[in-house]
Amino acid sequence: ISFNAIDSALSSLKNCQSYINSGMDVATQVALDLVQSFNDEEDVNNMEKVMLEYATMDRQLNHYIKAFEETINQVKREKPEILPDLENLAQEKFLEMESKNSDSDFQRNEKYMYFKDQLKEMKKQYNGNDTIEQIDEDIAVTRSQTNFICPITQMTMKRPVRNKVCGHIYEENAILEMIQTQKQKKKKVRCPKMGCSHVDVKGSDLVPDEALKRVIDSQNKQ
Length: 222
Known about the structure:
Layout: H1 4-36, H2 41-78, H3 86-98, H4 110-127, H5 130-135, H6 137-146, E1 160-163, E2 169-171, H7 172-184, E3 206-208, H8 210-221
Antiparallel strand pairs: 1-2, 1-3
């Protein structure tokens, strides 16, 4: 049996995932733009709905790909004399996976969770400081500027990245250089934030903190 055509179709499906990921990146940037521009809350909520739709599509696509891969592997393993209806077999597996869907699935979608996290941070920076500033504007500014300082360089960050494990933020180049240097010595990197107990910082755990970058850029322009 030749599976070239099926492999080609699966490859095309996987390409569709890259389009979904690109769409999620764009939706995230648009949502952050809306918060930064103090747009109507409904507009921001609509972008959340768009992200949820993308996450749903991504889940369906993952299930479809997995169903076909399992079907092909099953046929290759069992080598039946009469080839079964692959489409029906894959459809059954797909429907079985879809029947187990739950909202908690979206917590495994990194793009969706990143969107939620960044949106929350952005709202906090642009909508949540009113009461603090009313108490003492100087204290509020000083407190927020402290968050702009990289624990490694002790300078204002230009490209902040957040550690998904411990939540601390560093200048991208500084932390990557530290990881590379320690890797050459075959040593792990302890989080450079004072008091943090995380002892194995990896490059794969770092995500750009777009919300903080926007706040820093805005502050620098003033």
